[in-house]
Structures are given as structure tokens and as C-alpha cells.
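stage 2 :: seqdesign
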């Protein structure tokens, strides 16, 4: 597997330029905020706040600018639509800022501040997106992205004086995958479908041991393989909606920086958020996993502004060596109240979550509360789910309505 992964990492740099997560064709101006707070134990800060801007026809008709701006971090991409020929887009990206490369050590349900540290960094990337089926209702894209990232590490106020930090290092990575459909970067999208498979490989310049007497290692190479199936649907008459997401992944030579990290309920903190309600954010470090998330929204009033949200997550994990704990099945449940304004410009949700199998000092079980906010700066009129939406499948209407 190690030899196969190493070969795949290098060979994918030279496959024909076909694609990477497709260029967003919709104009967007969104402010997104998410926060989780735990009742039991001392948890690291868990949240996000960013402005998302996507502008097709930027300067020229074939240019798209994507920008995500957080208080101390910037992620940007300039896309060239049909830049490499019909149905093949090209994009270049720049990202970087403070704290995003830091690491919080959580082991056995305990946040270990003496083994945690800050990290800053920056990166440049190049991506290619190829659409295989132009004109079809559900797009099939092949994605290819190469990234050069550099990380700088510093102790924070609580890092142990005898804890050796990882080497500052470069991380050269490639991600490639097939995505059929997609999910919009919005809070609780009314309609979405995705089937996708992915590979991501990392080659690092500063591998080696770190920690207490070299008790942990930064691998020279790591290889990740995962797949996702997701479906969101809103019933046209009742406006009840559900979102089901199944994600599974495995890895070769994963370390603390490349392992799958599960926990928390922050749906827009990453492209592939690994949510487990009631747990600390990124509490679980897994070498491989299977995760099922289910979310259901039920309107409470005749105008469908107030909704009850019920959500759950269940995962089977194979822990990263050195991060194991009793039990491989992990479950969490949650619920809350969601309000959205008449124009859908505002969405705000207050939620409670219970981590059924989370380990704390008093045994199993953990409680947390959360806040999710979305403000759409570009939306002016109500855009409720209706039968003329481009991605409405008549078959789903017949089944569910």
C-alpha cells in the first residue's frame, strides 16, 4: 500500500489536465458564523466566522473570483472558465494567514494544552475542473489540484517548555477526484445531491520526530482515500427538509496532521466536515472511519419561518496510533430552533447536542450548545423551493410528495 500510494502521489501530477471541486457558477455574498461551546471539560475554541464572495464575470466574462475572508485568514481562487478548452476550467489560488496550521491535542476526551501549539502558513495552488456531461441535469466533474503549502509553528502560552515542536516544513499535496452533483456552500441547502470519490497525497520537506523525547512523528508522506454520498431534499408543500450524508475514508501513513478528525457540529467549517454532535471539535483522530450524518427540519408556523431541527451522527472509527480510546462506535444527537427571515436573507439556529459516547471525567456523555448564523448580502426576494428549480428531480417529487 505504501509503494502504491507513493506511485499514485507522483503519477497524478502528470495525468492529463482534466479537473478539482468545480468553479462555483453562482454569484454569492455570504457571512457565515458557527460556534460550539462544551459544558463538560476544557475544550479548545471551536468556531468559524468568514465572508464568502463568489463573482462570475469578474473583469472578463470567463473569469470567476472566489474569496473567503476570515479575521486572520484569506482563501482565494481565480477561475478561468474554459481556460483549457471546452468544458475544462483552470484556476489558481492563494491562501494563508494565522493560526490555521496549529494543532490541538485531544486524547481520551481531554484537551492537552501542554501538547498543543500554534501554527501559521500560506499556500499557492493550481486546479483543473473538467465537466464530462455538459447539458445533463446533474454534472459530473473530474478534479485535479496541486498545492504548495508552508507551515510555521510556535508554542502558545500553555505549551510545555520541554515539548519539541514539529519542524517548519513545506507540504506539497495533490488532490484528485470524481464528483457527481454537489452541495452548495450554504447553511442547510434545500436541494442537493452528491456522489464523489477522492484521493489526496502529501509529500513533506521537514519530516521527523517531535513531542516529548520524539514520541510522535511527522510522516514524510501520507495518502488519504475517501468517498461521500449526500442528499438534501425539501418537500414542496410542507417545506419539511432532510439532509443525509455518508462519508467513509482510509489512509496510508497518516499522522496527526493528516488524520481524519471527527467531532463537533460546524457544518461549514470545511468542504468535508466530519460532524459528531456533542463532541469537542476534532476530538477524534482516525486512521479510517465510516460516518453517517442525518439532519431533519420541521416547520412550526404557517409561514415556515420557525423550524425545529433534529440531527444525529454515528461513526465507526479505527483510531490513529497513539490516539485510541475504548470503543470504536461513537454516536451523538442534537436538536435546535432555526429561524429564517421572510426573504431568507437571515438564517440563525441555536442548538443543543449530546455526545452519547464522548469520554469525560465523569464517564460517558457530553453536552454542548451551538450557534449557526448565515447572512446573505445578495438575496433580496424570497426564493422558496418550487417546481421550476433547475435541480428539482420529478422522481423525488413523486416519491416524497
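stage 2 :: out
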Amino acid at each position: 500500500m505504501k509503494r502504491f500510494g507513493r506511485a499514485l502521489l507522483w503519477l497524478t501530477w502528470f495525468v492529463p489536465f482534466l479537473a478539482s471541486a468545480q468553479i462555483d457558477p453562482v454569484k454569492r455574498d455570504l457571512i457565515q458564523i458557527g460556534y460550539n461551546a462544551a459544558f463538560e471539560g476544557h475544550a479548545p475554541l471551536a468556531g468559524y466566522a468568514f465572508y464568502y464572495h463568489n463573482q462570475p464575470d469578474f473583469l472578463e466574462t470567463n473569469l470567476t473570483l472566489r474569496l473567503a475572508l476570515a479575521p486572520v485568514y484569506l482563501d482565494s481562487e481565480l477561475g478561468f472558465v474554459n481556460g483549457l478548452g471546452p468544458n475544462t476550467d483552470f484556476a489558481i489560488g492563494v491562501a494563508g494567514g494565522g493560526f490555521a496550521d496549529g494543532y490541538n491535542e485531544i486524547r481520551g476526551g481531554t484537551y492537552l494544552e501542554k501538547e498543543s501549539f500554534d501554527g501559521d502558513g500560506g499556500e499557492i495552488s493550481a486546479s483543473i475542473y473538467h465537466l464530462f456531461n455538459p447539458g445533463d441535469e446533474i454534472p459530473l466533474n473530474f478534479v485535479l489540484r496541486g498545492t504548495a503549502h508552508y507551515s510555521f509553528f510556535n508554542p502558545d502560552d500553555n505549551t510545555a517548555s520541554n515539548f519539541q515542536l514539529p519542524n517548519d516544513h513545506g507540504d506539497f499535496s495533490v488532490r484528485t477526484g470524481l464528483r457527481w452533483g454537489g452541495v452548495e456552500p450554504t447553511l442547510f441547502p434545500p436541494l442537493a445531491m452528491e456522489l464523489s470519490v477522492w484521493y489526496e497525497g502529501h509529500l513533506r520537506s521537514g519530516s521527523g520526530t517531535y513531542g516529548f523525547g520524539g514520541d510522535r512523528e511527522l510522516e514524510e508522506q501520507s495518502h488519504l482515500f475517501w468517498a461521500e454520498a449526500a442528499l438534501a431534499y425539501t418537500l414542496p408543500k410542507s417545506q419539511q427538509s432532510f439532509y443525509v450524508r455518508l462519508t467513509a475514508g482510509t489512509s496510508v501513513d497518516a499522522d496527526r496532521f493528516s488524520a481524519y478528525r471527527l467531532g463537533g457540529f460546524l457544518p461549514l467549517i470545511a468542504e468535508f466536515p466530519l460532524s459528531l454532535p456533542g463532541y469537542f471539535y476534532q476530538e477524534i483522530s482516525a486512521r479510517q472511519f465510516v460516518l453517517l450524518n442525518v439532519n431533519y427540519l420541521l416547520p412550526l408556523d404557517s409561514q415556515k419561518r420557525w423550524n425545529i431541527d433534529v440531527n444525529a451522527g454515528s461513526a465507526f472509527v479505527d483510531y490513529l496510533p497513539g490516539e485510541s480510546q475504548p470503543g470504536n462506535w461513537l454516536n451523538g444527537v442534537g436538536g435546535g430552533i432555526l429561524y429564517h427571515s421572510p426573504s431568507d436573507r437571515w438564517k440563525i439556529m441555536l442548538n443543543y447536542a449530546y455526545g452519547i459516547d464522548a469520554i469525560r471525567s465523569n464517564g460517558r456523555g457530553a453536552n454542548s450548545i451551538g450557534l449557526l448564523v448565515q447572512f446573505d448580502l445578495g438575496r433580496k426576494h424570497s426564493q422558496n423551493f418550487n417546481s421550476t428549480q433547475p435541480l428539482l428531480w420529478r422522481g423525488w417529487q413523486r416519491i416524497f410528495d
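stage 3 :: structure notes
- The helical segments are 2-11, 394-400.
- Residues 4-20, 381-401 have pLDDT under 50 and may be disordered.
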